[in-house]
Amino acid sequence: MTSLSLPDALPAPRRRSPDSVPSLRWGVLGTGWIASRFVASLQASTTQRVVAVGSRTQESADAFAARHGIEKALRPMEQLVGDPDVDVVYVATPHHLHRSGALAAIAAGKHVVVEKPIGLNSAEAQEISAAARAAGVFCMEAMWTLFLPRFDVVRQVLESGLLGQVHTVLADHGAHFDPPHRILDPAMAGGTLLDLGTYVTTLATWALGPATRVQASGSMTSSGVNGQAAMVLTHAGDATSVLHSTLLARTPTAATIAGTAATLTLPSPFFMPGDVVVTSADGSHSVTWTDPEPIGHEALYHSAVEAARCIGDGLPESPLHGAASVRANMSALDEVTRQLGITYSPDRENTP
User: Fold this and answer.
1) What span, in angstroms and rounded, lies between the C-alpha atoms of 277 and 289?
2) Distance between CA atoms of 63 and 258, rounded to whole angstroms?
3) What CATH number did the domain enclosing 256 receive?
4) 192-243 pLDDT, tens digit each
5) Whether 150 and 107 share a structural domain
6) Which of 52, 61, 268, 350 could, after both became Cys, cross-link 73 (CB 3.0–4.6 A)?
7) Predicted pLDDT at 352
8) Which of left, alpha, beta for 24 (phi over 0: left; psi -120 to 50: alpha)?
9) Shared-domain flag, residues 161 and 225
10) Residue 87 contacts by C-beta under 8 Å, 6 or more apart in sequence?
11) Boundary of a domain, candidates 84, 118, 144
12) What is the pTM of this model?
């Protein structure tokens, strides 16, 4: 394919207007950084209603509710998931508590959206998915990247065959953290893989399919968590992804999907709202889709809109990121943790 084969413009994202989906009543389990940004995004950009928040302490729940204008501040967890005014529970606890929060919500008959990663491994992901299906409720991992308009542009480019045969994904995600951040705490299943690495492995398995072989190397921090991981994944047709994550330094955090006819580039940070650039294989021509969305985590609301759409349509999971997609990612991470000798032994006693 020559540069003349590139279109004049990339496809516009297919998206539902936030006010075109059912307005659900959300209960938020957890009061940390991501919970605060998720609630602010919903309140600023959707008709979704956050009606309750739950935390491990009443003080934390009260403060979060006051800050965001939420009517109910509840503890323990059973009060939130059992509240009849809650339609769907957003599990935003530290990720070593995702399983317990998700299963409690499902057992209470609530739809559930669980922050990434949905569990610590593929077995937990499968357990949560199976429980939701048995209960007849919706379940989704809130891998917000895949619900962004930016990634629907990427999705359409891949579906169209514009890149030709895709052989390669390159992705990196690195940031610096200082104590006492939870990512440095082994009791909270800290380390780079479940927080940062899951973005790069999700991209790779989403674009190329499940990994058929994994090779990994990495290093640990003095606190006893994985500090850095380099991964090479082989996929169907001998396609390859070369991936890196670190909590030791800030890195480019860009991504590339390369095919025989053209190369798609996601400028940094690749997992947030941003542009999409497609360049012909000979490098002579490129076309760019420019993202008009708010920057950063202001766009978290797209996850909630997708969940509301699916719940309104009676779907058990999102077709954009269902249980098989989650399982492909978690299985790759499982093999990385095995090769690196990482064992998650979190403190599960201090549950929400």
Assistant:
1) 6
2) 47
3) 3.30.360.10
4) 999 999 999 999 999 999 999 999 999 999 999 999 999 999 999 999 999 9
5) no
6) 61
7) 43
8) beta
9) yes
10) 24, 25, 26, 110, 111, 311
11) 144
12) 0.95
| In-domain check, residue 239 | yes
Q: Which residues contact 291 (CB under 8 A, 6 or more apart)?
A: 149, 150, 273, 274, 275, 276
Give residue 88's identity as a one-letter amino acid code. V
Parent domain of 193: 146-292+322-340
End-to-end CA separation in angstroms for the chain: 55
Taking residues 30-45, report their average pLDDT: 97
- Contacts for 34-37: CB closer than 8 Å, 24+ residues apart: 34/92, 34/115, 34/297, 35/64, 35/90, 35/92, 36/64, 36/67, 36/68, 37/297, 37/300
CA 53 to each of CA 58, 71, 97, 182, 348: distance values in angstroms, whole numbers, following the listed order: 10, 8, 16, 21, 20
DSSP 193: I
- Is the pLDDT confidence value at 294 over 90? no
Q: Do residues 117 and 157 share a domain?
A: no
Could you give the C-alpha distances from 280 to 153, 268, 276, 288, 312, in angstroms and in order?
17, 20, 13, 12, 41
Claim to verify: residue 174 and residue 199 sit in the same structural domain: yes
Report the DSSP beta bridge partners of residue 244: 172, 230
Q: DSSP state, 186?
A: G
Residue 83 falls inside a structural domain: yes
Report the Cα 338 to chain-centroid distance in Å: 22
Total structural domains within the chain: 2
Q: Residue 4 above 60 pLDDT?
A: no
Domain boundary among 91, 118, 144: 144
Query: pLDDT digit string (tens) for 145-164?
Result: 999 999 999 999 999 999 99
Which H or E run contains 216? strand 213-220
Query: Looking at residues 311-336, what average pLDDT do you find?
Result: 98
At which residue do the structure tokens 């380390």 appear? 191
pLDDT of residue 347: 61
pLDDT at 351 exceeding the cut of 70: no
Structural domain includes residue 250: yes
Q: What is the DSSP letter of 224?
A: S
Spatial CA neighbour of 245 closest among 210, 195, 208: 195
